[in-house]
Amino acid sequence: MPARLKRAIGGMLSAIGLAVAVMLIAAPAAQAAADDPADVSADDGLWWGAELDWGADGPDGYADRLGETPAMYSIRLSYPLDERARQDWMRAATSASAQGAVLVLSMEPRTILGDLTRDDAIAFNEMLERINRDYDTHQLVRFAPEMNGSWEEWGQQPREFVRAFETVADVVHDGASDAEMVWAPSYGAGYPFERADGRLEELTATDRRLLDTDGDGLLTEADDPYGPYFPDPDAVDRVGLTMFYFGKGEAGAAAGRDVPLQGNEAPEPGEVAERFAERWGYTVPQPASFYDRFAVDEDRPLLLDTGALYDFALTGDSELAVKQGWWRQVLAEAASHPRLNAITWLETVRTEAEAGAKEVDWRVTASSELAGALRTDLDAAGVRWGPITQVITPQEGSASTVQVRQGNDEMNWITGSAAVLAIAFLLSGVIGRLRPAWRYPDDSATRDLRIDMVRGFVIIVVVVTHIEVLSPYSLASLNVIGAITGAELFVLLSGIVLGMVFPAAVRRGGEWAAAVGAWARARKQYLVALAVILIVFILSFVPFIDATPVTTFTDRGTGADGEATTGRVYDLYPNADRLLDYPPPWYAVRQFLLLEMGPWPFNIMGLFVVLSLAYPAIMWLIKRRMWWLVLALSWGLYAVHVFVPGFAPLPSQFNAVFPLLAWQVLFTHGLVIGYYRRQIIATLTSRPGKILVGLFVVAYAGFLVYLWAGDRYGFTPTPFPADLYAMLYDSGYQRIDLNWGRLIDLPLVLVSSYAVLTVAWKPIDRIMGWLWIPLGQASLYVFIVHVFFVLAVANIPGLDRQSFWQGTLIHTAVIAIILLMVKRKFLFSVIPR
């Protein structure tokens, strides 16, 4: 290919790459903005929800199929709580809270009702309070539902059921969870459901008297299917009713009757209305309907648990005719029964005794045809879509990992650090004159060991910060850099290094080869990122490894929301379990591919992947002296972030901690600085340059010290307002965002450290170069592997994280092992550096 043509194609492709990067940044995130949550106590419409098969499905999958966010999700849990129930509950709560959905808890006793104690209820309420406190989740407790049915182990035991229900209700109502107790029997036609005939012999005299409501000495259809099981009204916040359509079509084939399912039949017109009138399926007339007795007379809202089954092995009516026929009737009754304000639909495939112990399908979102029809009918019925409560997403979990210190203590440290850096900068001029032999031998155009040394120091700070044990390293890493963190320097210095090496790459193989090499590196970074996410996920299944220290994050109350969220546990691997499905659902695959999941110490990796993709196109402009355009575009994107802070160009996990539109400004400036390093150094070391830099350093540090003195000694720092110092941290230095204060502090740190390293290179290199330089030259490698050291340390049995000597030993060992890995080039061919 002719060189001119090759250059033209390279330029065109680089321009296209830049355009794609710009469009990617400008594109809205895949997540739609949520409506403001409603007050859960407000009568603002009909709630629709789903009871999922949580082992094979999740809220994201359901909402993705339906195309809308429901108000509720339902889950069945064992009671008393065991560890499995707690874990399932926590996963359901984190998933539901990400959509601001109400959580319906069907608590199913797994022991004799008489053995349930108040201590069981207290443990249950503690979990209710924790979920409500941490996730603002409103919870409806269906305790021992369908207690009038013969098919439940806790069924048809009115005395013990009422005692157990009231015990739980008393504890829950005395607690602070704001949970609602739901009394939820099954629709009564067919009661006592044949299989209960033999139970009469097992009943105590008290239960026999309670159930025999007509006094004939027998348990028959003439007896009340609901009343004996109704507890004290004060224990009930909401009544519920289970009303399923088993596809048997005729009124005589009521639930519990041994009538085989022979074909798929759409429900008869008016069947649900007849059920609400308590007429469908009864052979003995009922004096009043469930709705009138318990919803109207007791003044309670009604939660309906419903669904319609379909057997694909049988002939008959279509699935749409069966299921839509049922949900339309249910929605029609909701319109005429105002106390019916919540409906959950069984969204699963399971074996049903009513269908001859065969597997049947209850789902209404499994096909696009059904889901579309349901969505249309739900919209027409005016259901209230979510969110209902506060939306707490995995992105908020990622954002909470930025731990900050609040108030004047932090600002005092920033001021002190600025003063020390300013003094060090001024002293560097003196040292340069007194000890010229210590100067850095700047004889390389492509490698600057001063930058490598700073990168090595920064990556050690990152490693120490993420391995959260007490040691001299941790005390230094949290304070030594002042207003900024290691992340800012990590991104800026990465840009500088890439800007420096690009000209050499062009000289070796031409601009096109340099671009292709850069994209290959970005691809490698991306694949390694996916690999790390997967490896950590796989490790979570190893019996003796607890991966939750990196796959979840417990809020320490030092993030954006302060102490209000202390203790909240965030799941940073949303829907990862769905990746094990066959085939895995697209929404889970999409979250994986877009890096929406991953260990929290690793979240900045996604930022590097995106920036690396844009790197060749940016360098194409810089090489053509259009650095001014690059910086103008960069600040334009930063302005978008400032004025539209909620705009997220990507749903990736990193964007919550390191917003792309803000953090790209560090990388682009680094590229420009690296490419024009020689010219910039020459300018800054000229007499005018030294004067300007000196004025900046002294003026900035002096400004902070002046304001600090006014605050400390009680005078007004004229011409500034007296309370300016108290406002500085919140307005410019918080670590939850890249504000003006951190952007100003960054060049102070960079200029001062670079000046000191320049004039005192030899002694510093002799003392720390053996450690900082090799780690700095492989900083990305160190960052990637350190995730597994964080996990390993978290799994050390008996480790006391507040023990100074244990923490010192741990940090020293980890740094030494990583240094050895770098020296031996362990997996250098696989892991990018």
From TrEMBL:
Cite the GH26 domain residue spans from the record: 28-375
Query: What family classification does the UniProt entry report for this protein?
Result: Belongs to the glycosyl hydrolase 26 family.
* Coiled-coil residue spans: none
Q: Name the SUPFAM superfamilies on file.
A: (Trans)glycosidases (SSF51445)
Please indicate which superkingdom the organism of origin belongs to.
Answer: Bacteria
Query: What are the UniProt keywords, alphabetically?
Result: Glycosidase, Hydrolase, Membrane, Signal, Transmembrane, Transmembrane helix
* Name of the gene: opgC
Q: Which residues cross the membrane?
A: 413-432, 453-475, 481-506, 526-545, 600-622, 629-650, 656-676, 688-709, 740-761, 770-792, 804-822
What protein name applies here? OpgC domain-containing protein
